Known about the structure:
15% helix, two-stranded antiparallel sheet
Amino acid sequence: MKRLLLVLVGLFVVCTASAQLYIVNGEEYSAEQMRRIDPERVESSVQVAINDSIMALYGERAADGVIVVKLKHDTEPQFSVDSLSFREWVEREVAWGNDEPAARVVYRYVVGTDGRAQLTELIESTDNRL
């Protein structure tokens, strides 16, 4: 039977092939999904002792062990304004006519965990109208 080795050393997560069950913020994860987790996002990790209640909850998937991981944030921030890409959203939000001379503007946006973008700072502008 394949076994998994999950080692949390400081902020490093090392995964090998496994049949163990991973629960991350309440959702089942595959070994591949575990490998993709940024170690800095891991708040805690616990290997759960297998008992009747764990087997009743997860069934045979828990036979080789269950590792419960809590991430610092439940979800990654995602940009979702209708079906627009971020570039399209900026083009819609920044009015600049086709007959206007080219200009450069650099803004800092923060995308919240709810997917909403918020303009936080004007960093640079080559035209004072922007």
